[in-house]
Amino acid sequence: MEFKDLTKVYEMGEERVHALRGVSARIERGSFWAIMGSSGSGKSTLLSILGCLDRPTSGTYLLGGEDVSALDDDALSDIRLRHLGFVFQSFNLVPQLTVAENIALPLYYQGVPERESARRAEEFANVVGLGKRLGHKPSQLSGGQQQRAAVARALATDPTVILADEPTGNLDTATSVEIMELFASLHRRGKTIVMVTHEPDIAAWAQHRLVMRDGLVTEVRQ
Amino acid sequence: MEFKDLTKVYEMGEERVHALRGVSARIERGSFWAIMGSSGSGKSTLLSILGCLDRPTSGTYLLGGEDVSALDDDALSDIRLRHLGFVFQSFNLVPQLTVAENIALPLYYQGVPERESARRAEEFANVVGLGKRLGHKPSQLSGGQQQRAAVARALATDPTVILADEPTGNLDTATSVEIMELFASLHRRGKTIVMVTHEPDIAAWAQHRLVMRDGLVTEVRQ
Ligand SMILES: Nc1ncnc2c1ncn2[C@@H]1O[C@H](COP(=O)(O)OP(=O)(O)OP(=O)(O)O)[C@@H](O)[C@H]1O
Ligand SMILES: Nc1ncnc2c1ncn2[C@@H]1O[C@H](COP(=O)(O)OP(=O)(O)OP(=O)(O)O)[C@@H](O)[C@H]1O
Ligand SMILES: [Mg+2]
Ligand SMILES: [Mg+2]
């Protein structure tokens, strides 16, 4: 992933919010990055652009050498489904679906047969410690359990790139370590991981670090 | 706040989840407590019972010496409105209302005149660093900004007791310290604060600590 001079401006009537003011970096395939920075500095905005969920206002973004701005919405949607796993800051679980159905959702969209989907959903639920919760709905889970369901969903398609926005924000230390060990083993298997976190102990699990402030990158540590 | 042998069982068809298995403690007026524990250990469940948002399955809860189980829903609602400020783990902001309207919502329910409500909402928005966001909707805010709006709403009525579920879960270190300094100053002014957190640095701001695991209290540190 290589991005150059990315800007993002949100326009709301008269007002403009400059969420990103020109950020550039190169994230090598198979590397593990932590993005840190103050609240409102643009971390989630950057992650959504890297994850092809949103387009920058200006600047270039090359994903696997390909210019993402040249792709239409369908092509972006296809890339997201086949190569990216996204853990959202507010989880975005579907309230009407069970834990198992939520985790299996991207597999369903990929056209994976029902039985294999269900098997994989159960496997990943177990990996994040939710094996006994398959039939529960999100409203019946604690905050940290919902977060883990969101992590399981992002991993179920075995994506090449994992983008995680505060994946341990609602987890106690011991459970956070379990999730980080999971990420570390995925990284050893060749995945690219870009993780937003505000906790230094969590950022320490990554190889590289990017720090943001007010829509700009203030530090890059390789 | 004094509770004894509190249990909470969630029944979902055939299944029963024992969220609380008998917890007891005494939280003196004007004290500052941190509740820690593993994901799913019952922290949010305990907080919602202390905050009169939910009733225990069994056990007693005395709030200001009064047995809460003897009160009907209207009386509980009245206590919540007049004495308690609650920061939810998932914020629970109203999507259709602006930041200012969200913060002012409890004041509106208390019957405070519009102009005074708006003035106080602006004051608390400034206190949490959202002074420039009054007209924005929650979907236009970052995760940490939404969290701060939820904190401002809990404080706007100047409640005697503040119950906060992971109030800094989405905040960077510097902003977390600002929120903790705010809580510390409220505590110095005599407020009772009960805060769920998984971060030891945040728990360190409290005077006392309660640790939970699997629906039980495993440790009480005075
Ligand atoms: N409405 C509900 N229906 C069924 N079970 C529930 C419900 N709410 C919570 N639970 C269960 O009760 C237990 C305690 O949940 P609680 O939300 O209190 O945990 P917690 O300590 O706050 O966890 P976390 O740190 O992950 O937020 C969990 O096992 C959870 O799945
Ligand atoms: N849909 C939107 N409309 C308008 N402004 C937005 C929108 N989404 C984000 N913003 C603004 O863009 C800026 C960056 O937001 P972003 O969510 O990327 O921050 P962040 O670094 O993730 O913050 P946090 O650590 O609090 O989650 C913030 O000032 C935010 O209010
Ligand atoms: Mg964010
Ligand atoms: Mg909780």
Report on the structure:
2 copies of one chain form a homodimer. Chain A has about 220 residues and is α/β, with parallel strands linked by helices. Chain A has a single domain, classed as P-loop containing nucleotide triphosphate hydrolases (Rossmann fold), CATH 3.40.50.300. Helix content of chain A is about 35%, strand content about 30%. Chain A is built from 7 helices and 10 strands. In chain A, the strands form 2 sheets. In chain A, strands 6-7-8-3-9-10 form a 6-stranded mixed sheet, with helices on both faces. In chain A, strands 2-1-4-5 form a 4-stranded antiparallel sheet, covered by helices on one side. In chain A, a hairpin with a 2-residue loop joins strand 1 and strand 2. In chain A, helix 3 crosses helix 4 (about 115-125), helix 3 (about 100-110) packs parallel to helix 5 and helix 4 crosses helix 5 (about 145-155). The radius of gyration of chain A is 17 Å and the shape is globular. The interface of A and B includes residues 136, 142, 165, 169 and 174 of A. The complex binds adenosine-5'-triphosphate (ATP) (2 copies) and magnesium ion (2 copies). One magnesium ion binds near residues 43 and 165 of chain B.
Brief account:
Chain A is of the alpha/beta class and 222 residues long. Chain A has helices at 43-50, 73-83, 99-110, 114-127, 143-155, 173-188, 200-203; strands at 2-12, 15-26, 32-37, 58-63, 66-67, 84-87, 161-165, 192-196, 208-213, 216-221. The first copy, chain A, contains 7 helices and 10 strands.
